From TrEMBL:
<keyword id="KW-0547">Nucleotide-binding</keyword>
<feature type="region of interest" description="Disordered">
    <location>
        <begin position="209"/>
        <end position="366"/>
    </location>
</feature>
<dbReference type="GO" id="GO:0008193">
    <property type="term" value="F:tRNA guanylyltransferase activity"/>
</dbReference>
<keyword id="KW-0342">GTP-binding</keyword>
<feature type="domain" description="Thg1 C-terminal">
    <location>
        <begin position="138"/>
        <end position="219"/>
    </location>
</feature>
<dbReference type="InterPro" id="IPR007537">
    <property type="entry name" value="tRNAHis_GuaTrfase_Thg1"/>
</dbReference>
<keyword id="KW-0808">Transferase</keyword>
<keyword id="KW-0548">Nucleotidyltransferase</keyword>
<protein>
    <recommendedName>
        <fullName>tRNA(His) guanylyltransferase</fullName>
        <ecNumber>2.7.7.79</ecNumber>
    </recommendedName>
</protein>
<dbReference type="InterPro" id="IPR038469">
    <property type="entry name" value="tRNAHis_GuaTrfase_Thg1_sf"/>
</dbReference>
<feature type="compositionally biased region" description="Low complexity">
    <location>
        <begin position="324"/>
        <end position="338"/>
    </location>
</feature>
<dbReference type="InterPro" id="IPR025845">
    <property type="entry name" value="Thg1_C_dom"/>
</dbReference>
<dbReference type="Pfam" id="PF14413">
    <property type="entry name" value="Thg1C"/>
</dbReference>
<comment type="similarity">
    <text>Belongs to the tRNA(His) guanylyltransferase family.</text>
</comment>
<keyword id="KW-0479">Metal-binding</keyword>
<feature type="compositionally biased region" description="Basic and acidic residues">
    <location>
        <begin position="310"/>
        <end position="319"/>
    </location>
</feature>
<feature type="compositionally biased region" description="Pro residues">
    <location>
        <begin position="221"/>
        <end position="230"/>
    </location>
</feature>
Amino acid sequence: MANSRFQYVKKFELSDALLPDTYLVARLDGHRFTKFTAEHGFTKPNDERGLLLMAECARQVMSEWSDLVMAFGQSDEFSFLLPASSPLYGRRSAKLSTSFVSLFSSSFVFFWPKHFPDTPLLYPPNFDARIVSYPSAQHVRDYFSWRQADCHINNLYNTCFWALVADGVSKQDAQVALKGTTSGDKNELLFSRFDTNYNEIPQRFRKGTTLFRARPTAVAAPPPPPPPETPLRQPSRQDGAAAVDGSGDKGGRGPPVESGPISATATGGETPTAGRQAGETGVEAPRLAAQETNNRVENNIGVETIPDSRPSEDGKPEAGSEGGDAQAGVAASGAATGKGQGDKRPRGRGKGGASEKAGGAPRGDAVVKVVSCSDGKGRAKRLLKKGHAPPGAIEEDACDLIRDDFWDRNPHILAAGTMRR
């Protein structure tokens, strides 16, 4: 009876799981930040210190959970995107929202002295969070376009409003003056009265801040050292005599054979026997070199292959990926470890287990083994502690999400299956 009650409680606890195969957007918003910014002396209409602080808090959140592929912020809010393939925390809304907002809030307090060194924090800030699921990539693009359009509308209004206030107009009269005006009217007001071109205002103010995780790229493996050149055998007098006798001159009156190394190209047409032997030697050298290179790959000596799980647009791996030039190295490494020959290596959470499972590279053979996406729980910090490369660098850009430029440059953000399955 007790077990059934506990199972019911556990099932009820997991009942807030969001729909699978849908994009999840977590939006964090400051609570009563109008009062907070006024009491802490924020510059109006935009305080770059506060915007940089918000961006750093968002970067901390994205660094902690590698499943987050994108974030967009403006004013006192930030939106984070989880791809449809992310299983983070069982896609539970309460778990996701509380985890994101708690780290964001603590980061805001932690980094406050860095961005406001001369302004003490009078009281702790407060943020709320909500999780919304979207069924398609187009809905996600529409959402971020909506948030950026909201950033533009609010910033244009606030720029005009605070310019009027700074010019001696009361706040009530400024509101009346801007009521019912269009964006063209506001731009004309700024240009004609305050000599301000709105397009010259920093993009961070007009378009917000975008953080996105760059697509992981393969680390180029250093080329193997060139094989040692095999010296060609110098012919003996017997070889020279055979060459002369076999040249078609029965009296042995053929051209004398010079001493020294014989080039297969130089002697191939003059002395067939010597040319054939030298030619075989010339063919033997690259064959031996190739065999030596294969042995080096099989023994994993001086060969570092970093697989890249990124497919090309036609569905085939790109050069340098698992299906490209590095495929031979990976296959040879697998053969050396006994894969496919009945020698099954143990799997688990021991040292190197995550890296071997992610990239298939043997332990201790490369400085940077793999570009991993996650450790199974969506955390990138654990992999960083083990010396792995992060799952794509977090880049920052005040780009225009309304147009197609950003999405065309970063198709992996909304591509299905970009993260682990």
